[in-house]
Amino acid sequence: MRRILIVDDEQGIRAALGQLLEFEGYEVHAVANAVDGIGEYEKWKPHLVFLDVKMAGIDGLEALRRIKEHDPGAIVVMISGHATIQTAVEATQLGAYDILEKPLDTDRILVTLRNALQHLDLHEENARLRETIESRYEIVGRSYAVRAVIDKIERVAKSPARVLISGENGTGKELVARAIHRQSQRADGPFIEVNCAAIPSELIESELFGHMKGSFTGAVQDRAGKFEQADGGTIFLDEVGDMSLAAQAKVLRVLQDGVVTRIGGSKPTQVDVRVLAATNKRLEEEIAEGRFREDLFYRLNVVPIHVPPLRERREDIPLLVVHFHSQLTEREGVAPRTVANEAVERLQQLDWPGNVRELRNTIERLLILAAGPRISGDDVVRLVGQRDPEQAGLGSLLECKTFEEFKHAAERAFLLAKLRAFDWNVSETARALDMPRSNLYKKIERYRLTRETAA
Q1: Which of 10, 82, 180, 333 has its CA 20 to 30 A from that of 89?
Q2: Which residue, 311, 193, 298, is CA-closest to 248?
Q3: pLDDT value at position 399?
Q4: How many Cα atoms are found within 13 Å in the side-chain-facing hemisphere of 98?
Q5: Is beta strand 269-270 parallel, antiparallel or unpaired with respect to 259-260?
Q6: Tens-digit pLDDT profile for residues 10-21
């Protein structure tokens, strides 16, 4: 039931308005002065306030200002027996939703009330949608690797720096890009995503920079490109390593000059866009092979962020299971089930080549196909598979081609895991490994181990 507060020093107004609103099905509280009205608002949190302008002591305009300071989203309708244009202007500037004149007209009251509460409904629905979207794009995890990524996001988000996000498919590179945008000064601007790998090479330039009518077959009207659409916000170039060299040259110009020219057009358009890019390729190798421009790489790679694969942060899998279970059951209508500890342990043993995206799809499959109300370890084996115990913990080490390569990779992975376990305290790590600290420093240098490696 919607709550409505009436603040008026006239008993007759409070009684008549309160009776009308209660008859319409609202819960009503009424007070006789502004001080009580402000206190009642803070304590009762009504959905709407009818507030008299002229009252003894603190007047309605001052009360409106204080209510708005306490709650900027408050919906306040002013009522006055002798409203002037100056009063109406001042009330509007202070954030009043509307101003009604006495004697109050019943139809006008109800129309104003209905419109105000529809406005409130829309605001609440937007808030719910925003919460749903933010939950969908939430970065979940407490491992050192994830905390390092989140820390770097928080540091780089407020700056205008370009960011190159690297990582395997399914690790959550888009989540990182969205988190940077959401925490940036451009958060109210557009976030435009372009999957460079999904757009045919002959269309990528049109997608990015737009085109003029008649500039090529099928161009039936003028069309703004993604850079123009992202003006004032952020453009996210996903899988930028798959972009054609011709498109790379034009992107480089945008980064240098801040202008785009549509295909078939001659007039450059100024754009104010922050560029975030992501790739699952080693761009240094692409540069060596002549498939990626070195100058563009250095323009994009101002701040690098590496998103770790799921196999390097298995301790986050229980949290991710809970997160995806909540998403799928609460927002997508999948029937809920309890998940046994044994099932979570078996999920932690898998290598997850598809990373977090694969884990989410697996949780959905288990929720749909598990035999009973409880997902067991046997359900995981039956519906997902299991890991060979002899291979547990080896992961990608088994892909090494020689025994010497395997020894180096295993030592590197072991040292990295131990350093992370001791939060990169070299002295503590060396003591735990019974290794001279100088020896550990040499191995860190040899394998080029840094906190960046862990993140």
Answers
A1: 10
A2: 298
A3: 64
A4: 16
A5: antiparallel
A6: 999 999 999 999
Instruction: Write down the pTM of the prediction.
Output: 0.62
Domains of the chain: 3-132 (3.40.50.2300), 146-308 (3.40.50.300), 312-391 (1.10.8.60), 400-454 (1.10.10.60)
**Secondary structure (3-state) at 213:** coil
Contact 10, 52 (CB under 8 A): yes
What is the residue whose two structure tokens read 């088994």? Answer: 398
Percent of the chain's residues with pLDDT above 90: 62
Residue 276, classed as helix, strand or coil, is strand
Report residue 184 as tokens: 């940036």
Beta bridge partners of 80: 101
Residue (of 226, 221, 230, 215) closest to 263 by Cα position: 215
Would you say residue 77 has pLDDT above 70?
A: yes
Give, for 65, the enclosing helix (H) or strand (E): helix 60-70
Strand order of the β-sheet with 234-238 is 191-195, 234-238, 274-279, 163-166, 303-306
In degrees and rounded to multiples of 5, residue 95 shows phi and psi of 105, 15
Burial of residue 89, with CB atoms counted within 10 A of its CB: 0-12 exposed, 13-18 middle, 19 or more buried:
exposed
- Give per-residue pLDDT as tens, 331-360: 778 888 999 999 999 999 898 989 999 999
Q: How many residues does the chain have?
A: 455
Cis upstream peptide for 103 (omega within 30°): yes
pLDDT tens for 421-454 read 777 888 889 988 999 999 998 998 888 887 644 4
d(C-alpha 115, C-alpha 142), whole Å: 45
pLDDT for residue 271 is more than 60? yes
What residues contact 185, with CB distance under 8 A and at least 6 apart?
158
CA–CA dist 274, 185 (Å, integer): 11
d(CA 423, CA 308): 17
- Find all residues with CB under 8 Å of 244, minimum gap 6, and list them: 201, 204, 205
